[in-house]
Amino acid sequence: MAALCAATVPARAQDPQMDLPRVKLSAGMFQIDAQVAQHGLQRSIGLMFRKEMPQHEGMLFVFEQASQQCFWMQNTYLPLTAAFVADDGTIVNLVDMQPRTVNSHCSEKPVRYVLEMNQGWFAKKNIKAGSKLTGPPFGTPR
Fold this sequence. Notes:
Layout (H helix, E strand, L loop, with lengths): L21 E6 L2 E8 L2 H6 L11 E11 L2 E2 L8 E6 L5 E7 L7 E2 L4 E8 L2 H4 L8 E2 L8
Parallel strand pairs: 2-3
Antiparallel strand pairs: 1-2, 1-9, 3-8, 4-7, 5-6, 5-8
């Protein structure tokens, strides 16, 4: 595992990670400012302990290889929707997740990307499974 710089790891176990790299994504005409969690510890912490998140922001989890990805919400205080995303940016499936639960929410197919947004963001914008995200991770301009 690559060494993590101190700025990417919360100072205390219950501090949210706020200093991850960011990437601009698009979902149709909607812009997303996503923090990128691409290493083991960053992905494990994810959006835990975060009390709020602006509506246009999210977190993109990047995995080394496509596989079934499963997420849970223990120590996560915000209701979120996870978009499980194929390499080309196509949303495979969307799952609403309730805060502070240990239910497992999984991708329907192997994926390398998972985008978490505030719950309801995708629904309000009529973004569904089959919709495409664009941006550098998916090899497309945003």
